Amino acid sequence: MSLPEVVSTVTEDVQAHRKSEFALSPLFLNRWSPRAFTDRKVSDEDLHAILEAAHWAPSSFNDQPWRFIVAKTEEQLNVFRGFLGDFNKLWASSAPVLVVIASDKQRENGDPNGAHAFDSGTAWGYLALQATLKGIASHAIGGFDRQAAREALNVPDHYELHAVIAIGYRGDKNELPEGIREREVPNGRKPLSEVVFEGRIGS
């Protein structure tokens, strides 16, 4: 997917499944979370740009609590695949890059950081949008064994593990296992009126 296509038009596969109620950049509609990946490698330059974008997310007191643990060699990927849930192993094992997103629950002075998860979620959003701009897919995975990941990756107790992100180029959905294949479409959204309230909930 070229940069002009991402920022100026909604792609054909997305048009069939997504319609925004109000005008917005096609970038937001073109970003979705596929499960089919090719074995094409993501260059270090592109991967670093994607992670750099995530790192420029806003954060409370500019604490930048996010941490990214990256797997891109076969040895590293095998470790990450080991703590994925069984369902997610079926498709995410094809992704050439896996990234664990964690966040530091403490500020530098040792005080608790109540915004660490909120801020790290924003970093994931930035990551996903920058990947889309580069024609690269990303999919956040919540189904993984956090304790196994913590032990395998030597993650300190004051870090919270949020998600494993699969990153790579979109593949052929027909190569997905049966039962997953039919889910390989951009999903829609609830009407804006169901999630936006003026003044108070129920107004």
Structural write-up:
This protein has 203 residues and is of the alpha+beta class. 28% of the residues are buried. The protein has a 4-stranded antiparallel sheet, with helices on both faces. α4 runs antiparallel to α7 (116-133). The protein folds into 2 domains: 1-30, no CATH class; 33-184, NADH Oxidase. The protein is built from 8 helices and 4 strands. It has helices at 3-8, 12-15, 26-30, 44-55, 74-82, 86-92, 116-133, 146-153; strands at 66-71, 97-104, 137-141, 159-168. The mean pLDDT is 95. This is Nitroreductase family protein.
Q: What are its keywords?
A:
single chain; 203 residues; alpha+beta; NADH Oxidase; 2 domains; four-stranded antiparallel beta sheet; globular
Structure described in brief:
This protein has about 200 residues and is α+β, with helices and mostly antiparallel strands. The protein has helices spanning about 5-10, 10-15, 25-30, 45-55, 75-80, 85-90, 115-135, 145-155; strands at about 65-70, 95-105, 135-140, 160-170. Helix 4 (about 45-55) runs antiparallel to helix 7.
